[in-house]
Specification:
The chain is mainly α. It has 14 helices and no strands. Among the domains are: about 35 residues, no CATH class; about 220 residues, no CATH class. About 65% of the residues lie in helices and about 0% in strands.
């Protein structure tokens, strides 16, 4: 009965919404407040419905692409700027007051700023709640299929809004990796591993193709070789990605442990100075000079050092953020290119951290049976890298997951 009533009101509202004209730059503060309130109410209604209904498709999902697990249409709007970029909302209004009327307008605008600030906070909270409710639909969902995992590993990178892609990736982490044998994984990945080629073999094949007299045959052979090499490169890149993620997490673990020791603040300062001196872009400046000369050179390069250190801090933050994701969701984080460390600060949506914080609360309250199997994920990770990278790579990854299992905060 309630849904029928809601449908009746939506049918009445929709034509009105389609007739609303965009606000002009000179719109009054009252009009802007009203527009903001209407948008907030609609967003709040959507959030409540999603939470109460559990989403239109329930908990179980299918399909061969991870994108089908979440429908990005109808998302609450979100500013897609990086969290570390200014949003422009703090700009001061210039100009002097000349009349009492101007003063009244300024007071109205000050009030509007306050109300706008509250509305902005409420809108962000609604967006976070909406995103988390949508992602949480994948708790107790079927795990990713073998085909979905293969597409995630070596398929074309999906396109869309940053927030939508984050939500798909986070939902996939909640769904988890499938229970499958080495033979099962070989069935979907072995053809990729077979096409991994060395630079020497590329040169040899190229020379062999040069010796083929028929131009048609040469074209066919080169096309086949290039296509095979592309598949092989994707497989190799996948292995390298996993290994880099592991090294990044090891760095973050060491950083965490060293930071907990006495003198951590001074050590961090010294770390950045040493890393700057050893950076290939600046190492020549410090080659063969004394310790006192190094101090002088650092003072001379104070501005470049500040810019470099700011960038390096973002890098360390991203590495620590990857560790947090690993501890929250487990082994699946090591396989998804969405969590490539260079994109974990500036490459994220503005509300990524609040969404992550809120999602952590959901995960902590979830029934253990609804959470993804870490034993299946661990087995899948080792099987995948063994097939694509060989036994030595498999042993290396297995040693890492044994020595550094996720804490599952």
């Amino acid at each position: 009965m309630e849904l029928q009533e809601i449908q009746k009101y939506l049918n009445a509202i929709q034509p009105l919404c389609s007739r609303v004209s965009p606000l002009s730059p000179n719109a009054s503060p009252r009009s802007r407040r009203l527009a903001s309130t209407v948008c907030d109410q609609l967003s709040s209604i959507q959030t409540v419905l999603v939470e109460n209904l559990g989403g239109p498709t329930g908990h179980r999902h299918g399909g061969t692409s991870r994108a089908h697990r979440l429908d990005p249409s109808g998302d609450a709007e979100e500013d897609e700027q990086s969290q570390d970029e200014p949003d422009g909302e703090g700009e001061k209004r210039g100009g002097a007051r000349e009349t009492d009327e101007d003063a009244d307008e300024d007071e109205d605008e000050d009030e509007n700023r306050t109300e706008k600030g509250r509305s902005t906070i409420a809108a962000k909270q609604n967006t976070v709640a909406f995103r988390v409710a949508k992602i949480s639909q994948c708790l107790a969902a079927d795990p990713l299929s073998l085909a979905e995992v293969a597409d995630m590993l070596v398929g074309d990178r999906p396109k869309g809004k940053v927030a939508d892609l984050e939500d798909i990736a986070l939902a996939s982490l909640l769904a988890g990796l499938p229970h499958a044998s080495l033979h099962d994984w070989a069935g979907v990945l072995e053809h990729l591993a077979d096409n991994i080629v060395s630079t020497a073999s590329i040169v040899v094949a190229s020379a062999a193709h040069d010796g083929v007299e028929s131009i048609t045959q040469r074209l066919e052979m080169r096309h086949k070789a290039l296509t095979s090499a592309d598949m092989g490169n994707r497989a190799n890149n996948c292995v390298v990605f996993v290994l880099r993620q592991i090294e990044t997490i090891k760095f973050a673990l060491d950083w965490q442990d060293r930071g907990a020791l006495p003198g951590g603040k001074k050590w961090i300062s010294d770390f950045y100075k040493t890393a700057f001196i050893e950076d290939p872009a600046f190492v020549d400046e410090f080659q063969g000079i004394t310790e006192n000369a190094i101090k002088v050179k650092l003072r001379e390069l104070e501005e470049p050092f500040k810019r470099w250190r700011n960038s390096a801090r973002h890098t360390v933050t991203a590495r620590n953020r990857l560790l947090r994701l690993y501890n929250m969701f487990g082994f699946g984080v090591l396989l998804d290119p969405t969590w490539e460390v260079n994109g974990l600060v500036r490459g994220r949506s503005r509300l990524f951290v609040p969404v992550l914080d809120s999602l952590l609360s959901v995960v902590r309250k979830a029934e253990p049976a609804d959470l993804p199997s870490q034993s299946d994920a661990r087995r899948a990770l080792i099987h995948i890298v063994t097939i694509l990278g060989g036994d030595d790579i498999g042993v290396h990854v297995k040693r890492f997951v044994q020595d550094h299992p996720p804490t599952l905060l």
